[in-house]
Design a protein that fits this description.
Helix content: over 70%
Structural class: mainly alpha
Order of helices and strands: HHHHHHHHHHHH
Oligomer: single chain
């Protein structure tokens, strides 16, 4: 039995066509290219700056007993974390990109066209999620690698070695890239829930930058314990060589981060289906 025109209109295009359409929209927007380029520039710039700062600190430790004590207190290999020193800013930029990817649909009125072409709505939402998370992972991984390449000769000048092929370096690269992709997914959910670019970005900043500082400044065991459950505080347990006391185990941190991603996305998908455009 052949499918009638009304049935085809209700069903909409296949997911791969929707994904291709969202990919075209994504890469043809100037704002997208600017944010991606900014992420790469920030990651590489902070990698170079961190390499210089780490080298200066190592030189000071060689001559100053107090600096040497601070260096020993840090533990581990300081150079290995240099390429990922710009992650805090990369998460903000690509998280904002996730917000804009959906909020711009409503602010410009494009949502009417998008959801007329994809009446079920969820395929378009899923396609945007795939595009922004894959892009965020790829951009973060590539930028981290380039930042490492830039940092190596700088660290060599101070007698510090950075092996980009070591297991810990690769672990940092992969975990950091997955983490930033998760932040971008949270940003997409916030953009869908709030339908407002400024509100979504401010919520993202509040969650990843303001809340951790506020919870650290407010005294009390409750805030100290709750602070561990913030998504921005899951990176350290996931990338630590050894378990840091009073922090989550790696699997617990991964579960917390996953919850922060899944719950807003599910809520955003449900409301996207129920709300009017």
């Amino acid at each position: 039995m052949s499918t009638t025109a009304p049935e085809r209109a209700l069903t909409g295009p296949s997911f791969f066509r929707v994904l291709r359409s969202e990919g075209i929209k994504f890469r043809t927007l100037l704002s997208t290219l600017v944010l991606i380029a900014s992420t790469a520039a920030v990651m590489v710039g902070f990698g170079a700056l961190s390499a210089w700062g780490t080298g200066q600190f190592a030189d000071a430790a060689a001559e100053d007993p107090q600096a040497a004590a601070r260096l020993a207190a840090q533990g581990g290999d300081l150079a290995v974390s240099v390429p990922t020193s710009g992650i805090a800013f990369a998460q903000l930029i690509l998280g904002s990109l996730g917000v804009l990817l959906m909020s711009s649909e409503f602010s410009t009125g494009m949502a009417r066209s998008t959801f007329s072409a994809v009446p079920k709505r969820l395929p378009a939402f899923a396609a945007k999620l795939v595009v922004v998370t894959v892009t965020s992972f790829a951009v973060t991984a590539a930028s981290t690698w380039v930042a490492g390449l830039v940092a190596v000769p700088i660290l060599d000048n101070y007698g510090l070695k950075l092996d980009l092929g070591s297991s810990q370096s690769l672990k940092l690269l992969l975990v950091s890239s997955v983490y930033v992709a998760a932040v971008a997914a949270i940003g997409l959910a916030l953009g869908t829930l709030l339908r407002n670019s400024a509100g979504g970005i401010m919520s993202l900043v509040g969650l990843f930058f303001v809340a951790p500082i506020a919870f650290q400044l407010i005294p009390g065991e409750f805030f100290e314990e709750t602070r561990k459950y913030l998504p921005g505080n899951t990176v350290e347990p996931l990338t630590a060589v050894e378990h840091v006391p009073e922090t989550f185990e790696a699997w617990q941190a991964g579960l917390v981060l996953g919850t922060w991603v899944v719950v807003p996305l599910v809520l955003a998908a449900v409301l996207l289906k129920r709300r009017d455009v």
